[in-house]
Specification:
Length: 509
Amino acid sequence: MDFLKNLGIENSNPGTSTGQNFLGEDHSEEIMSQTPIDGSEIASVTITSRAEYDEVVEKAQDAFKEWRMVPAPERGEIVRQIGLELRAHKEDLGKLVSYEMGKIYQEGLGEVQEMIDICDFAVGLSRQLYGKTMQSERPKHRMYEQWHPLGICGIISAFNFPVAVYSWNAMIAAVCGDVMIWKGSEKTPLCGVAVQKIIAKVLKRNGISEGVFNLITGGREVGEWMAEDERIPLISATGSIRMGKEVAKTVGARLGKTILELGGNNAIIISEHSDLEMAIRATVFGSVGTCGQRCTSTRRLIVHESVFDELKERLVKLYDGINIGNPLDEDTLVGPMIDEDAVDNMNAALKEVQEAGGELVYGGETVDKAGLEGGHYVKPAIVIAQNDYEIVQEETFAPILYLIKYSDLDEAIAMHNGVKQGLSSSMFTLNMREAETFLSSRGSDCGIANINVGTSGAEIGGAFGGEKETGGGRESGSDAWKAYMRRQTNTINWGDEMPLAQGIEFDVE
């Protein structure tokens, strides 16, 4: 396919790290990338060995010594050029995202656009890494704070956003003066290779060390090396709550820093005062987009009893008209799930919720597509359920939407907040008091809370992340850049005396 060739990926091993191929006589382990569209093989990527991993870390350490001394606006210029290179490859990279991950092409393009947008944001940020000046209580003293880069930023990303979430971290960290080691998902290794090749062009053109941006490949073991490595002061990890707890425990044991973006069990409250047309559109995109495999996917719909039946009927009708199939086809709205395990998890969840008393009102079946027999296609499911069902309390990474009825706002908010996760949330209402209540301290307990906007599709300008078992991390916009730097308070005595703080007298003759 032309887009693979344009990205430098052939049906052979494209290597790892910074575009280098580490294949040696003793190296035989590979990851074979398969498209979820039909299960066919695309290309293989070598798994990073321990020796290669240490080589990458040492190279990153050396690069950091130079990169941290490059003025931040100049670092921003490199990121600006990366953004331009991504623009030039947007269509090809968007197709690769769709081909290797399974999201529809429009979503693949949107993911690359997020990368471009965060590059633009980071360029501006490169001139705004501000510290504060404080008033000293001592005469002829000046106090201020400044921010310094941490060093190596380890980035562990997930299959569902194989390129965008990496860039949220990497481009911000780059202008802050950090260097990156990235381990993407073993389910989407070629997306990482393609991005690495794009970045390598910019670095080579500007005479910048390859060690600023590094790529490693592999599964859990490689991620564990990163989490245990005292040479990596920050680990930013996206994935399951289970994985995040292990990363937090390991990194915390060495007093390292983490940014954790973990599971979401996102809900929309639909009030009797809502604009149902808007609410339904947001619900459908949030629940079936990326085949329910977004951390911000809408999983619970908490609906006022007065509009519950109407909403259910309209959702069933819309779901029945959704075109499921090849994500590269323009008329497709829902592509395949990532693999067979994902389908099995969906089936297990549907079985459990029905055994608990839930009513499956639509979908859940596997779908056979002519010519795509090796793919994993399912009909998105709608289930009438109770919020306290054990399976509803968990995040199932699949297109299952639980419909839950409520009678008053306090009840709705209690159900909304009554889960362990706290990523994204939404309420549809035209009632100002309801809206402000939802956004107040007695309302949503999530890191993201929206009014008349769905749970999915966050912009890069705001800090992205969640509370509770979602991990508490923040990436992307606002002042999330501070997580990639260390704060330093400085005091300068420009007088000829040595007064002490708090008026302490300590005279030495």
